[in-house]
Amino acid sequence: MHSKTLFALGLCLACSTFPVAAQVGGGTLAARGTAFNPKISLILLGTYADFSSELEPEIPGALLGPETELRPGGFSLAETELVIESNVDDTYHGWATVALENEGGETVAAVEEAYFNTLALPAGLAVKAGRFLSELGYQNRIHAHAWEFVDRPLVYRALLANNLKDDGVQLRWVAPTDLFVELGAEALRGQAFPGGGEKRDGVNGAVGFVHLGGDVGVGGSWRLGLSHLQADADGRETGEEGAPEVFAFTGDSALSVVDFVYKWAQDGNPAKRNLVLHAEYFHRDEDGTVDFDDGAGGTASSGYDGTQDGFYVQGIYQFVPRWRTGLRYDRLKADNTLDTPDPVFDTLADDDAATRWSAMVDFSNSEFSRLRAQYNRDESRPGGEADDQFFVQYIMSLGSHPAHQF
Protein backbone atom coordinates (compact mmCIF):
# COMPACT_ATOMS: atom_id res chain seq x y z
CA MET A 1 0.00 0.00 0.00
CA HIS A 2 1.28 3.48 -0.83
CA SER A 3 2.59 5.26 2.25
CA LYS A 4 0.24 8.22 1.91
CA THR A 5 -2.77 5.91 1.66
CA LEU A 6 -1.74 3.99 4.76
CA PHE A 7 -1.12 7.22 6.63
CA ALA A 8 -4.62 8.42 5.84
CA LEU A 9 -6.14 5.29 7.33
CA GLY A 10 -4.31 4.68 10.63
CA LEU A 11 -5.70 2.50 13.41
CA CYS A 12 -8.50 4.15 15.36
CA LEU A 13 -11.57 3.86 17.53
CA ALA A 14 -14.85 4.78 15.85
CA CYS A 15 -13.33 5.22 12.39
CA SER A 16 -16.58 4.95 10.42
CA THR A 17 -16.29 8.05 8.24
CA PHE A 18 -13.57 10.09 6.61
CA PRO A 19 -13.59 13.92 6.49
CA VAL A 20 -12.39 14.16 2.90
CA ALA A 21 -13.94 15.23 -0.36
CA ALA A 22 -14.44 12.70 -3.13
CA GLN A 23 -12.21 13.06 -6.17
CA VAL A 24 -14.17 13.04 -9.43
CA GLY A 25 -12.52 13.41 -12.80
CA GLY A 26 -9.40 14.95 -11.30
CA GLY A 27 -11.44 17.64 -9.50
CA THR A 28 -12.85 17.91 -6.01
CA LEU A 29 -16.55 17.29 -5.41
CA ALA A 30 -18.07 18.17 -2.05
CA ALA A 31 -19.93 15.44 -0.25
CA ARG A 32 -23.33 16.94 -1.05
CA GLY A 33 -25.09 14.63 1.37
CA THR A 34 -23.40 16.46 4.26
CA ALA A 35 -23.75 20.01 2.93
CA PHE A 36 -26.76 20.66 5.19
CA ASN A 37 -26.63 17.47 7.24
CA PRO A 38 -23.35 17.49 9.12
CA LYS A 39 -21.97 14.39 10.78
CA ILE A 40 -22.69 14.60 14.52
CA SER A 41 -21.27 12.39 17.24
CA LEU A 42 -21.31 12.40 21.02
CA ILE A 43 -18.47 10.80 22.97
CA LEU A 44 -19.24 9.50 26.45
CA LEU A 45 -16.28 9.09 28.81
CA GLY A 46 -16.33 7.95 32.43
CA THR A 47 -13.79 6.63 34.94
CA TYR A 48 -13.47 4.91 38.29
CA ALA A 49 -10.14 5.75 39.99
CA ASP A 50 -8.36 4.67 43.18
CA PHE A 51 -5.10 6.17 44.53
CA SER A 52 -2.90 4.91 47.37
CA SER A 53 -1.26 8.30 48.08
CA GLU A 54 -2.92 11.44 49.41
CA LEU A 55 -0.10 13.78 48.37
CA GLU A 56 -0.82 16.61 45.95
CA PRO A 57 -0.10 15.53 42.35
CA GLU A 58 2.88 17.83 41.79
CA ILE A 59 5.78 17.09 39.47
CA PRO A 60 9.13 18.27 40.89
CA GLY A 61 10.84 20.94 38.81
CA ALA A 62 7.81 21.71 36.63
CA LEU A 63 5.49 24.73 36.66
CA LEU A 64 2.21 22.95 35.93
CA GLY A 65 -0.47 24.55 33.83
CA PRO A 66 -4.25 24.58 34.34
CA GLU A 67 -6.38 21.43 34.49
CA THR A 68 -3.43 19.13 35.18
CA GLU A 69 -4.88 17.59 38.32
CA LEU A 70 -5.43 13.84 38.39
CA ARG A 71 -8.85 12.30 37.93
CA PRO A 72 -10.86 12.40 41.20
CA GLY A 73 -11.06 9.21 43.21
CA GLY A 74 -14.13 7.04 42.83
CA PHE A 75 -16.61 7.40 39.98
CA SER A 76 -16.38 10.49 37.82
CA LEU A 77 -17.60 11.74 34.47
CA ALA A 78 -14.77 12.82 32.21
CA GLU A 79 -15.13 15.06 29.18
CA THR A 80 -18.30 14.50 27.16
CA GLU A 81 -17.45 15.58 23.62
CA LEU A 82 -19.92 16.80 21.03
CA VAL A 83 -18.36 16.68 17.55
CA ILE A 84 -19.88 18.29 14.44
CA GLU A 85 -18.13 18.19 11.07
CA SER A 86 -19.02 18.57 7.43
CA ASN A 87 -17.79 19.80 4.10
CA VAL A 88 -18.86 23.44 3.72
CA ASP A 89 -18.64 23.28 -0.07
CA ASP A 90 -16.15 22.04 -2.64
CA THR A 91 -13.40 24.21 -1.14
CA TYR A 92 -13.79 24.16 2.64
CA HIS A 93 -14.44 21.69 5.45
CA GLY A 94 -15.52 22.61 9.00
CA TRP A 95 -15.04 20.95 12.37
CA ALA A 96 -16.19 21.79 15.91
CA THR A 97 -15.67 19.95 19.20
CA VAL A 98 -17.41 21.12 22.37
CA ALA A 99 -16.41 19.50 25.67
CA LEU A 100 -18.89 19.31 28.55
CA GLU A 101 -17.13 19.08 31.92
CA ASN A 102 -18.01 19.17 35.60
CA GLU A 103 -16.20 21.93 37.50
CA GLY A 104 -17.10 22.52 41.13
CA GLY A 105 -20.42 20.77 40.75
CA GLU A 106 -21.40 22.82 37.70
CA THR A 107 -21.49 21.74 34.06
CA VAL A 108 -19.21 23.88 31.90
CA ALA A 109 -19.10 23.90 28.11
CA ALA A 110 -15.71 24.61 26.52
CA VAL A 111 -14.81 24.91 22.84
CA GLU A 112 -12.01 22.42 22.27
CA GLU A 113 -11.73 22.96 18.53
CA ALA A 114 -13.61 25.11 16.01
CA TYR A 115 -11.88 25.51 12.67
CA PHE A 116 -12.18 25.27 8.92
CA ASN A 117 -9.64 23.75 6.56
CA THR A 118 -9.18 23.81 2.81
CA LEU A 119 -9.89 20.87 0.53
CA ALA A 120 -8.66 21.86 -2.90
CA LEU A 121 -5.51 23.99 -2.74
CA PRO A 122 -2.97 23.12 -5.43
CA ALA A 123 0.57 21.76 -5.09
CA GLY A 124 -0.04 19.75 -1.91
CA LEU A 125 -0.87 22.82 0.20
CA ALA A 126 -3.52 22.99 2.92
CA VAL A 127 -4.62 25.72 5.34
CA LYS A 128 -6.44 25.44 8.67
CA ALA A 129 -7.72 28.43 10.66
CA GLY A 130 -9.59 28.84 13.95
CA ARG A 131 -9.02 27.01 17.23
CA PHE A 132 -7.29 23.67 16.80
CA LEU A 133 -5.00 21.14 18.43
CA SER A 134 -1.45 21.86 17.34
CA GLU A 135 0.73 19.46 15.34
CA LEU A 136 3.39 19.79 18.05
CA GLY A 137 4.59 16.26 18.79
CA TYR A 138 2.54 13.15 18.02
CA GLN A 139 -0.13 12.81 20.72
CA ASN A 140 -1.00 16.48 21.06
CA ARG A 141 -3.65 16.43 18.33
CA ILE A 142 -5.36 13.31 19.73
CA HIS A 143 -8.59 13.85 21.68
CA ALA A 144 -9.10 12.22 25.09
CA HIS A 145 -11.45 9.52 23.78
CA ALA A 146 -8.70 8.27 21.43
CA TRP A 147 -5.90 8.10 24.02
CA GLU A 148 -4.32 4.67 24.34
CA PHE A 149 -4.26 5.03 28.13
CA VAL A 150 -6.59 6.69 30.64
CA ASP A 151 -4.13 9.53 31.18
CA ARG A 152 -1.61 11.56 29.20
CA PRO A 153 2.15 10.87 29.32
CA LEU A 154 3.94 12.86 32.05
CA VAL A 155 5.70 15.11 29.53
CA TYR A 156 2.36 16.24 28.11
CA ARG A 157 0.88 16.88 31.54
CA ALA A 158 3.92 18.75 32.85
CA LEU A 159 5.03 20.73 29.78
CA LEU A 160 1.81 21.28 27.81
CA ALA A 161 -0.97 21.11 30.43
CA ASN A 162 -2.07 17.89 28.63
CA ASN A 163 -2.22 19.39 25.14
CA LEU A 164 -1.64 22.58 23.17
CA LYS A 165 -4.74 24.05 21.56
CA ASP A 166 -4.85 27.69 20.54
CA ASP A 167 -6.38 30.16 18.10
CA GLY A 168 -4.43 30.74 14.93
CA VAL A 169 -3.68 29.57 11.44
CA GLN A 170 -1.78 26.54 10.13
CA LEU A 171 -0.13 25.99 6.75
CA ARG A 172 1.10 22.57 5.65
CA TRP A 173 2.62 21.14 2.50
CA VAL A 174 2.92 17.49 1.40
CA ALA A 175 5.69 16.79 -1.10
CA PRO A 176 4.84 14.86 -4.30
CA THR A 177 7.21 12.00 -3.45
CA ASP A 178 6.89 8.28 -2.67
CA LEU A 179 8.39 8.98 0.74
CA PHE A 180 5.85 10.79 2.90
CA VAL A 181 7.26 14.31 3.47
CA GLU A 182 5.19 16.98 5.20
CA LEU A 183 6.25 20.47 6.29
CA GLY A 184 4.10 22.84 8.31
CA ALA A 185 3.96 25.99 10.40
CA GLU A 186 1.46 27.54 12.81
CA ALA A 187 1.01 31.15 13.94
CA LEU A 188 -0.85 31.23 17.28
CA ARG A 189 -2.42 33.76 19.62
CA GLY A 190 -0.30 32.37 22.45
CA GLN A 191 -3.11 32.19 24.99
CA ALA A 192 -2.63 28.52 25.77
CA PHE A 193 -0.04 27.08 28.17
CA PRO A 194 3.00 27.32 28.06
CA GLY A 195 2.11 30.78 26.73
CA GLY A 196 -0.68 32.76 28.32
CA GLY A 197 -1.16 35.72 30.58
CA GLU A 198 -1.89 39.30 29.55
CA LYS A 199 -1.37 41.20 26.29
CA ARG A 200 -2.37 38.41 23.95
CA ASP A 201 -2.91 40.58 20.90
CA GLY A 202 -0.85 39.68 17.83
CA VAL A 203 1.14 36.46 17.41
CA ASN A 204 2.65 35.22 20.69
CA GLY A 205 3.30 31.62 19.74
CA ALA A 206 4.61 29.70 16.72
CA VAL A 207 5.05 26.02 15.86
CA GLY A 208 7.05 24.44 13.05
CA PHE A 209 6.98 20.74 12.18
CA VAL A 210 8.44 18.19 9.78
CA HIS A 211 7.08 14.66 9.23
CA LEU A 212 8.68 11.81 7.29
CA GLY A 213 7.18 8.36 6.80
CA GLY A 214 6.70 5.31 4.67
CA ASP A 215 5.70 1.66 4.48
CA VAL A 216 7.57 -1.42 5.68
CA GLY A 217 6.48 -4.59 3.92
CA VAL A 218 2.79 -5.47 3.57
CA GLY A 219 1.49 -4.51 7.01
CA GLY A 220 3.96 -2.00 8.46
CA SER A 221 4.28 1.79 8.34
CA TRP A 222 6.29 4.39 10.22
CA ARG A 223 6.47 8.12 10.83
CA LEU A 224 9.26 10.30 12.22
CA GLY A 225 8.48 13.82 13.40
CA LEU A 226 10.40 16.88 14.56
CA SER A 227 8.55 19.92 15.90
CA HIS A 228 9.30 23.09 17.84
CA LEU A 229 7.21 25.58 19.83
CA GLN A 230 8.24 29.13 20.65
CA ALA A 231 5.88 31.00 23.01
CA ASP A 232 5.85 34.19 25.07
CA ALA A 233 4.29 34.25 28.54
CA ASP A 234 3.22 37.42 30.35
CA GLY A 235 2.19 36.72 33.92
CA ARG A 236 1.26 33.10 33.19
CA GLU A 237 -0.15 31.72 36.43
CA THR A 238 0.81 28.32 37.74
CA GLY A 239 -0.95 26.54 40.57
CA GLU A 240 -4.48 26.51 41.93
CA GLU A 241 -5.97 29.79 43.14
CA GLY A 242 -5.55 30.11 46.91
CA ALA A 243 -2.83 27.46 47.11
CA PRO A 244 0.36 28.30 49.09
CA GLU A 245 2.53 28.04 45.97
CA VAL A 246 1.16 30.11 43.10
CA PHE A 247 3.65 31.42 40.57
CA ALA A 248 3.33 33.89 37.72
CA PHE A 249 5.91 33.36 34.98
CA THR A 250 6.92 36.03 32.48
CA GLY A 251 9.42 35.19 29.78
CA ASP A 252 10.17 32.92 26.82
CA SER A 253 9.26 29.24 26.56
CA ALA A 254 10.84 27.02 23.90
CA LEU A 255 9.89 23.36 23.48
CA SER A 256 11.36 20.87 20.99
CA VAL A 257 9.88 17.41 20.36
CA VAL A 258 11.12 14.35 18.49
CA ASP A 259 8.55 11.60 17.92
CA PHE A 260 8.56 8.20 16.25
CA VAL A 261 5.62 5.88 15.48
CA TYR A 262 5.55 2.38 13.99
CA LYS A 263 2.33 0.52 13.17
CA TRP A 264 1.97 -3.08 12.06
CA ALA A 265 -1.10 -5.10 11.12
CA GLN A 266 -1.13 -8.80 10.30
CA ASP A 267 -1.55 -9.21 6.52
CA GLY A 268 -2.37 -5.49 6.43
CA ASN A 269 -5.64 -6.12 8.28
CA PRO A 270 -5.73 -4.42 11.71
CA ALA A 271 -8.91 -6.31 12.67
CA LYS A 272 -6.83 -9.48 13.23
CA ARG A 273 -3.68 -8.48 15.07
CA ASN A 274 -1.91 -5.15 15.19
CA LEU A 275 0.92 -3.46 17.05
CA VAL A 276 1.52 0.24 17.66
CA LEU A 277 4.85 1.44 19.06
CA HIS A 278 5.62 5.07 19.67
CA ALA A 279 7.93 7.27 21.67
CA GLU A 280 8.48 11.00 22.13
CA TYR A 281 11.31 13.04 23.61
CA PHE A 282 10.68 16.58 24.94
CA HIS A 283 13.20 19.32 25.74
CA ARG A 284 11.99 22.66 27.14
CA ASP A 285 13.89 25.84 28.04
CA GLU A 286 12.21 28.71 29.88
CA ASP A 287 13.96 31.99 30.67
CA GLY A 288 12.40 34.89 32.56
CA THR A 289 11.11 35.75 36.02
CA VAL A 290 8.62 34.21 38.45
CA ASP A 291 6.53 36.23 40.89
CA PHE A 292 5.20 34.67 44.08
CA ASP A 293 3.53 35.51 47.38
CA ASP A 294 6.24 36.45 49.88
CA GLY A 295 4.10 35.30 52.82
CA ALA A 296 3.74 38.85 54.20
CA GLY A 297 0.97 40.06 51.94
CA GLY A 298 3.32 41.21 49.23
CA THR A 299 4.90 39.86 46.08
CA ALA A 300 8.49 38.79 45.54
CA SER A 301 10.19 37.77 42.32
CA SER A 302 13.18 35.81 41.14
CA GLY A 303 15.04 35.29 37.93
CA TYR A 304 14.29 31.82 36.55
CA ASP A 305 16.11 29.65 34.03
CA GLY A 306 14.33 26.32 33.75
CA THR A 307 15.19 23.25 31.70
CA GLN A 308 13.13 20.07 31.59
CA ASP A 309 13.83 16.89 29.64
CA GLY A 310 11.50 13.94 29.41
CA PHE A 311 10.25 11.08 27.30
CA TYR A 312 7.82 8.20 27.17
CA VAL A 313 7.88 4.88 25.34
CA GLN A 314 4.75 2.80 24.85
CA GLY A 315 3.46 -0.20 22.96
CA ILE A 316 -0.12 -1.33 22.26
CA TYR A 317 -0.75 -4.86 21.01
CA GLN A 318 -4.06 -6.29 19.80
CA PHE A 319 -3.46 -10.00 20.31
CA VAL A 320 -6.92 -11.18 19.23
CA PRO A 321 -9.81 -9.27 17.65
CA ARG A 322 -11.33 -6.72 20.08
CA TRP A 323 -8.72 -7.24 22.83
CA ARG A 324 -5.59 -5.11 23.34
CA THR A 325 -2.95 -4.70 25.99
CA GLY A 326 -0.42 -1.91 26.48
CA LEU A 327 2.67 -0.92 28.46
CA ARG A 328 4.12 2.59 28.94
CA TYR A 329 7.13 4.09 30.69
CA ASP A 330 7.42 7.85 31.52
CA ARG A 331 10.36 9.89 32.75
CA LEU A 332 10.87 13.62 33.39
CA LYS A 333 13.89 15.46 34.85
CA ALA A 334 14.38 19.17 35.60
CA ASP A 335 17.50 21.32 35.87
CA ASN A 336 16.40 24.75 37.09
CA THR A 337 18.34 27.82 38.21
CA LEU A 338 16.78 30.44 40.53
CA ASP A 339 18.33 33.78 41.51
CA THR A 340 16.46 33.88 44.81
CA PRO A 341 16.82 30.82 47.05
CA ASP A 342 13.62 30.52 49.08
CA PRO A 343 11.63 27.62 50.56
CA VAL A 344 8.66 28.69 48.45
CA PHE A 345 10.56 27.45 45.42
CA ASP A 346 10.61 23.83 46.56
CA THR A 347 8.35 23.02 43.64
CA LEU A 348 11.03 24.23 41.23
CA ALA A 349 14.00 22.69 43.00
CA ASP A 350 15.99 20.06 41.16
CA ASP A 351 15.02 16.60 42.33
CA ASP A 352 15.21 12.99 41.31
CA ALA A 353 13.58 12.19 38.01
CA ALA A 354 9.84 11.70 38.03
CA THR A 355 8.99 8.24 36.63
CA ARG A 356 5.89 6.14 36.04
CA TRP A 357 5.03 2.67 34.74
CA SER A 358 1.58 2.01 33.26
CA ALA A 359 -0.12 -1.18 32.10
CA MET A 360 -3.57 -1.49 30.56
CA VAL A 361 -5.94 -3.93 28.89
CA ASP A 362 -9.03 -2.93 26.93
CA PHE A 363 -11.93 -4.52 25.05
CA SER A 364 -13.70 -2.98 22.06
CA ASN A 365 -16.98 -4.66 21.22
CA SER A 366 -17.05 -2.50 18.08
CA GLU A 367 -15.32 0.60 16.75
CA PHE A 368 -17.84 2.63 18.77
CA SER A 369 -17.24 1.22 22.28
CA ARG A 370 -14.29 0.51 24.53
CA LEU A 371 -13.85 -0.70 28.13
CA ARG A 372 -10.43 -0.34 29.76
CA ALA A 373 -8.63 -1.30 32.99
CA GLN A 374 -5.30 0.32 33.88
CA TYR A 375 -2.67 0.28 36.64
CA ASN A 376 -0.02 2.99 37.22
CA ARG A 377 3.03 2.76 39.44
CA ASP A 378 3.52 6.53 39.75
CA GLU A 379 6.74 7.89 41.28
CA SER A 380 6.38 11.44 39.98
CA ARG A 381 5.53 13.13 43.30
CA PRO A 382 8.05 15.16 45.34
CA GLY A 383 10.41 12.87 47.23
CA GLY A 384 9.68 9.97 44.91
CA GLU A 385 6.87 8.52 47.04
CA ALA A 386 5.15 5.83 45.00
CA ASP A 387 1.44 5.98 44.26
CA ASP A 388 -0.45 2.88 43.14
CA GLN A 389 -3.23 4.00 40.82
CA PHE A 390 -6.07 1.88 39.46
CA PHE A 391 -8.54 2.94 36.77
CA VAL A 392 -11.57 1.50 35.03
CA GLN A 393 -12.83 3.48 32.05
CA TYR A 394 -15.60 3.38 29.45
CA ILE A 395 -15.62 5.18 26.07
CA MET A 396 -18.81 5.21 24.00
CA SER A 397 -19.21 6.93 20.63
CA LEU A 398 -22.74 7.82 19.52
CA GLY A 399 -23.20 8.74 15.89
CA SER A 400 -20.91 9.08 12.90
CA HIS A 401 -17.34 9.87 13.90
CA PRO A 402 -14.53 10.56 11.41
CA ALA A 403 -11.33 8.54 11.28
CA HIS A 404 -8.31 9.69 13.20
CA GLN A 405 -5.06 10.49 11.46
CA PHE A 406 -2.09 8.12 11.45
Summarize this, please?
The protein is mainly β and 406 residues long. It contains two helices and 20 strands.
Give the termini distance in whole angstroms. Answer: 14 Å
Which sheet architecture does the biggest sheet show? Answer: 16 strands, antiparallel, barrel
> Within the largest sheet, what's the order of strands?
3-5-6-7-8-9-10-12-13-14-15-16-17-18-19-20
The helical percent reads: under 10%
Total number of β-strand segments?
20
Order of helices and strands: HEEEEEEEEHEEEEEEEEEEEE
Radius of gyration over all CA atoms, rounded: 22 Å
Global outline: globular
Q: How many helical stretches?
A: 2
Mean residue pLDDT? 85
How are the SSEs ordered, and which strands pair?
Layout: H1 3-9, E1 22-24, E2 27-29, E3 39-51, E4 74-77, E5 80-87, E6 92-103, E7 106-118, E8 125-133, H2 154-160, E9 165-174, E10 180-188, E11 196-197, E12 205-216, E13 220-238, E14 247-265, E15 274-293, E16 299-320, E17 323-338, E18 354-366, E19 369-379, E20 387-399
